[in-house]
Design brief:
GO terms for molecular function: energy transducer activity. The structure is a single chain. The protein has one domain: Fusion Protein Consisting Of Minor Coat Protein, Glycine Rich Linker, Tola, And A His Tag, Chain: A, Domain 2 (2-Layer Sandwich). The chain has three helices and eight strands, in the order αββαββαββββ. The chain has helices at about 5-15, 30-40, 80-90, and strands at about 20-25, 25, 50-60, 65-75, 95, 95-100, 100-105, 105-115. The strands form three sheets. It has a three-stranded antiparallel sheet with strand order 1-6-7, with no helix packed on it. A hairpin with a 5-residue loop joins strand 3 and strand 4. The N and C termini lie far apart (about 70 Å).
């Protein structure tokens, strides 16, 4: 047992040294640009009495930056859910995730907050 422990420690250290460097996908221009994109494109459904809610959407960012398999994960009202999906489908290409410097397909999810602001 005394000989196995140092070998295991050396093995664990060498494996962690070979760990892959991952970077998540992101909207071109960053979070601020994504929020601006949502602000410009999301429309409040007409005649809705809803004051606020969150829609969560998931999708894959392909290695070429296109979005695929866009799905509703959590909704709160049909017309808001539909609008969130419509806008995510309008999204321009994203910067894909990378692993060791190479673009890869990855799953991403985003919450979209609807909040009525009374002026």
């Amino acid at each position: 047992m005394k000989k196995i422990l140092p070998i295991l420690i050396i093995l664990m250290v060498s494996l962690s040294a070979k760990a892959q460097k991952l970077a998540p996908p992101h909207f071109r221009g960053g979070d601020k640009a994504f929020h601006e994109f949502l602000d410009q494109n999301l429309k409040w459904p007409k005649d809705s009495a809803v004051k606020q809610g969150i829609v969560k959407v998931s999708f894959y960012v392909e290695s070429n930056g296109l979005l695929s398999d866009i799905k509703l994960v959590q909704g709160f009202a049909h017309e808001f859910d539909k609008e969130a999906l419509r806008v995510i489908n309008l999204s321009p290409r994203w910067v894909p995730a990378t692993r060791d410097g190479k673009f890869i397909k990855s799953k991403y999810s985003v919450p979209i907050l609807y909040e009525s602001i009374e002026l």
